[in-house]
Structure formats: structure tokens, C-alpha cells
Amino acid sequence: GEDVEQSLFLSVREGDSSVINCTYTDSSSTYLYWYKQEPGAGLQLLTYIFSNMDMKQDQRLTVLLNKKDKHLSLRIADTQTGDSAIYFCAEREDNYGQNFVFGPGTRLSVLP
Amino acid sequence: DSGVTQTPKHLITATGQRVTLRCSPRSGDLSVYWYQQSLDQGLQFLIQYYNGEERAKGNILERFSAQQFPDLHSELNLSSLELGDSALYFCASSVDPNPLNEQFFGPGTRLTVL
Question: Which end of chain B, N or C, is more open, meaning fewer C-beta atoms within 10 Å of its C-beta?
């Protein structure tokens, strides 16, 4: 079945770049997403990328997709303490009725 | 504040019981999603409704059911509760099922089964 994997923890220093990695197994995934969950809150969509794209940039966020290796990464430039959260990678097929599959989440800790 | 409301915020109950979780989507959103977040299973999609009809089913147990009412609010019913059902249950809403439309998440209902 579908599976999405992420490393569980990442620590970076404030001002450095963070890179959160994700691998997925479903080759028919059309949409790939990054969500952020702050403590005690629901998920917030950060960005998404179509599977026919290699890269997407949105302010401090850069998403890279290697479709051949089924590898997705999220780079946060100039990481701030407010970026401390859990980041979820998710995939979805190009079908209005298709469900989401989420990774286990990566807990990002930003050290001062 | 996402505009999605969920009640109750916390729920404590015993094994074997039945509970109902309620979700009101953002104004104008027709699609509602339910998710379960637990330490064991992580974040899992349960079920999706669009304009009152079931749209997609994820890892939802047979003991669980949901519906979306004409006023678009949704309820998730959990029955014959087990210890392993303890989790945070999120509701999300979007304008329609288009995958490009952002899902807005509610604050969640924390269910504890003792």
C-alpha cells in the first residue's frame, strides 16, 4: 500500500537553513503537500507541488521533488524559533475522491 | 482561527461506550474531512463528505461512522470504544474536493478512553 516516510526529529540553529526530507511509495501520487502543526493546533497547509514539477519556491520555503527517487524535501531558509513545529509530508492522487496519506511528521526544533 | 469549530474540546469516556464528535465547517465550505491523530498510528485520514454525501473513505473502522447534515455540519460517531481509540480527532473543511483547495483544520477533539 501507500507509505510515506520522514525522519522524526531535526534540530537547527536559528538563522540556519532546515531541510526536512520525505519519501513516498505511490508512483501515481499527483499532489504532494507539506503541512505544519504547532503545539496544540491543527494542521496548516504550507505549500504543495504537482508531481510534474521539480521545484517550487514560496518566500522562505523551497520544495524539491525527485520523482524518480520518490523523494520530496522542504527547505526553510533563515529558520526562526517560530518555525519550531511538526512538519508533515502528505501525498494524494489526482482524484477528487482519493484520500490523503500522511507521513509520521518531523519535529523541528530551532535552537537560539 | 481557521473558522472550523469542533466540539467538545476534550472527551473522557470508558471502554465500550459511544461518543459523537461534532464539526462545523468554515462558512461556504461544502467538503468536510475527518482525521485521527494518535501516537501509534500518526495522522490518518478517516473519511470525507461533500455536500452531504460520502466522498472518500480512508482508514475508518467499522465501529466508526460519520455523516454530514443539510446545514453542512458533520458528526463522527465512535462506538464500542477501545483504549486504542484514544486520540486527537481533527475535522477539516474546504470549498470543494479539489485537491488544490486548502483544507482548513479545526482545533481538534481530544478523546481519552479509560
Answer: N
Beta-carbon separation of B92 and A42 below 8 A: yes
Q: Say yes or no: A3 contacts chain B, CB-CB below 8 A.
A: no
The sign one gets for the Cα dihedral B93, A62, A97, B64 is negative
In this predicted structure, what is the pLDDT of residue B9? 94
Please give the Cα distance from B87 to B76 (Å, whole number): 13
Name which of B102, B99, B85 is nearest B44 in CA terms: B85
Task: For residue A105, give the H/E element and its range.
Answer: none
Q: What is the pLDDT of residues B24-36, one digit of tens each?
A: 999 999 999 999 9
- Asked if the Cβ–Cβ distance from B56 to A104 is below 8 Å, we say no
Measured CA to CA in angstroms, residue B71 lies from A26, A28, A69, B19, B46 at distances of: 36, 35, 45, 21, 21
Q: Does B92 touch chain A (CB under 8 A)?
A: yes
How does pLDDT run across B8-29, given as a tens digit for each residue? 999 999 999 999 999 999 999 9
Query: Chain B partners of A96 at a C-beta cutoff of 8 Å?
Result: 55, 97-99
Q: How many helices (H) and strands (E) does chain A have?
A: 0, 11
Find chain A residues with C-beta within 8 A of B58's C-beta: 99-100
A45·B43 Cβ contact <8 A: no
CA distance linking residue A109 with residue B20, whole number of Å: 35
Question: Alpha-carbon distance B69 to A112, whole Å?
Answer: 48
